[in-house]
Design a protein that fits this description.
Layout: H1 3-17, E1 21-23, E2 26-28, E3 33-38, E4 43-49, H2 53-69, H3 77-93, H4 95-106, H5 110-130, E5 138-143, E6 146-156, E7 159-163, H6 169-182, E8 186-190, H7 197-209, E9 216-218, H8 223-232, E10 238-242, H9 245-255, E11 261-265, E12 271-274, H10 280-292, E13 304-308, H11 312-325, H12 344-359, E14 363-366, E15 381-384, H13 391-394, E16 401-407, H14 410-417, E17 425-429, H15 433-442, E18 447-450, E19 469-470, H16 475-480, E20 483-491
Parallel strand pairs: 7-8, 7-10, 8-9, 10-11, 12-13, 12-17, 13-16, 15-16, 17-18
Antiparallel strand pairs: 1-2, 3-4, 5-6, 6-20, 11-19, 14-15
Helix pairs in contact: 1-4, 2-8, 3-5, 3-7, 4-5, 5-6, 10-11
The chain binds nicotinamide-adenine-dinucleotide (NAD).
Nicotinamide-adenine-dinucleotide is lined by residues 163-167, 190, 192-193, 223-224, 227-228, 231, 242-244, 247, 250-251, 265-268, 299, 396, 398, 424, 464, 469.
């Protein structure tokens, strides 16, 4: 049996078993349905229940009950550790099957999906460690009226609504869930409507690992229905959102009603700065991968590459050669390095932005066209000479498109790199350690890579400056964001 057929069978089976929503430990469907399209072929492969306000209300009520009266937040932290660790091990044991669902749904190469699924298993084991380590400080308050004993407590934030996008659905849903659950929160997850399959696999793992009913709930459906209802819900305490900046702003407005805590991981237009002393022969593939991986559908895509004028032609040639050599196609084919874009809508958006860039004077040195075949394929594209201020330099593309821009000196490139509404990531390539760290200080981004890109790990915080987000995920900062800090004071 081919990998695709295996994935199609598994998708049919998970849809049959689960169907849509997991609320208070029970799976259910409803009258509405949303088509699921396989991007590699551009064909419908099934449908999933598309919930509404009623499902959101039921899921939030279940999560509230589980938070207030269930065992999750009051059980021995070590017991939560064991459950989350078990979930990580189960994800790893099922990684092949989950990755097949992800390749079917997103189109990404199966090997890449495997890496992301195994990374999510690691995130569960990392988060399992926090359960036993979230505690406060103690201090004496020496006041004119006497001495008071005071201490802080880290308490779970409450019911967390987690809303995720389609580009790496399992990892984003899994990472958020692991963090929220480790803090003692209960969860309602709303995955992207384009890629609902692997979230059901996550829900099944969590249930089998021992997460009690109501602690983890899943409601599928449209963003403007289910997502909006969660963001404005009076009984949701916290929203963890990854997605576009435009929707992030809507979530902030919706969250105002009850002043929910909000963590936002949003878009980017990340700069990559290549100095004259960079080892281009060594790093060209990393720079190319930093924007073409996952067909450019990455929030941290290094889509603006600034290169010292003396090395411009060399880098353009290296990136163009890499782009032309990339094997684009079906994620289930072993040789595929770049899969399709997620949807016809996304393909048309990338086409339109590239056309606008070319109309404004940019040159497509490689790629720049869609593939004339079924599925949503766009060729890896290298653009030179984009007009300063062009849309292609300002707007997030979320496609395999890189702009290469020459610069003369450090001051000029720092100003140009920081000239964006975003601030998610940046990269510097240089042979000088001092210059690398100096640039790391000056670039306005939540993550700065020196002589590398795309490296992430749960131990270090991740998030954006400016319109790339609010707050951080991963590390202590990430789990803190799912807690409230309480101060207790009593006469000593
Ligand atoms: P999106 O903002 O359109 O959708 C994200 C999620 O929000 C989906 O589940 C969607 O259904 C939901 N949603 C849509 N409208 C909503 C509303 N009014 N209220 C509540 N929820 C709503 O994003 P997308 O197109 O799915 O994903 C691409 C975007 O995600 C890009 O901008 C990308 O940069 C960003 N992203 C950021 C990170 C990060 O960590 N910073 C990671 C991956 C993707």
């Amino acid at each position: 049996m081919t990998l695709r057929q295996q994935a199609l069978d598994e998708a049919a089976s998970v849809l049959e078993r689960c169907g849509g929503h997991l609320i208070d430990g029970d799976w259910s469907t409803d009258a509405r349905s949303i088509d699921i399209t396989e991007p590699a072929q551009g064909v419908r492969i099934g449908a999933i229940a598309g919930g509404g306000v009623e499902e959101v209300d039921r899921a939030v009520a279940a999560a509230r009950r589980a938070f207030e009266t269930g065992p999750w937040r009051t059980m021995a932290p070590g017991e939560r550790t064991r459950i989350l660790w078990r979930a990580g091990d189960m994800i790893e044991a099922r990684a092949d099957a989950i990755a097949r669902l992800e390749t079917l749904d997103v189109g990404m190469p199966h090997a890449k999906a495997m890496g992301l699924v195994c990374g999510t298993a690691e995130m569960f084991r990392y988060s399992a460690g926090w359960c036993t380590k979230l505690h406060g400080d103690a201090a004496d308050m020496v006041m004119p009226t006497g001495i008071f004993h005071s201490y802080t407590r880290r308490e779970p934030a409450g019911v967390a609504a987690l809303i995720t996008p389609w580009n790496t659905p399992f990892a984003l849903a899994g990472n958020k869930s692991a963090t929220a659950l480790s803090a003692g929160c209960t969860v309602v997850l709303k995955p992207a409507e384009d890629t609902p399959l692997s979230a059901m696999a996550l829900a099944e793992v969590l249930r089998e690992a021992g997460v009690p009913p109501g602690v983890f709930n899943l409601v599928n459906g449209r963003g403007d229905v289910v997502g909006a209802a969660l963001a404005s819900h009076a009984d949701v305490d916290k929203v963890g959102f990854t997605g576009s900046t435009a929707v992030g702003k809507r979530i902030v407005q919706a969250a105002l009603g009850n002043m929910k805590r909000v963590t936002l991981e949003l878009g980017g237009k990340s700069p990559v700065v290549v100095f004259d002393d960079a080892d281009i022969a060594r790093h060209a593939a990393t720079i190319a991968n930093g924007v073409f991986s996952n067909s450019g559908q990455m929030c941290v895509a290094g889509s603006r590459v600034f290169v010292h004028r003396s090395r411009h032609d060399e880098l353009v040639a290296a990136l163009a050669a890499y782009a032309r050599g990339l094997k684009i196609g079906d994620g289930f084919a072993a040789e595929t390095q770049i899969g399709p874009l997620i949807s016809d809508r996304q393909l048309r958006r990338v086409e339109e932005l590239v056309a606008a860039g070319v109309a404004e004077g940019a040159q497509a040195i490689a790629g720049g066209i869609r593939l004339d075949q079924p599925g949503f394929y766009f060729t890896p594209t290298v653009l030179t000479a984009p007009k300063p201020g062009a849309r292609i330099l300002r707007e997030e593309i979320f496609g395999p498109v890189v702009n290469v821009i020459p610069f003369e000196d450090e001051e000029e490139v720092v100003a140009a790199a920081n000239d964006t509404d975003y601030g998610l990531a940046a990269a510097v390539y240089t042979g000088s350690a001092q210059r690398g760290h100096r640039l790391a200080r000056r670039l306005r981004a939540g993550t700065v890579w020196i002589n590398t890109q795309l490296v992430m790990n749960p131990i270090m915080p991740f998030g954006g400056f400016r319109q790339s987000g609010w707050g951080r995920e991963f590390g202590l900062a990430g789990v803190d964001a799912y807690t409230e800090l309480k101060t207790v004071i009593t006469p000593a």
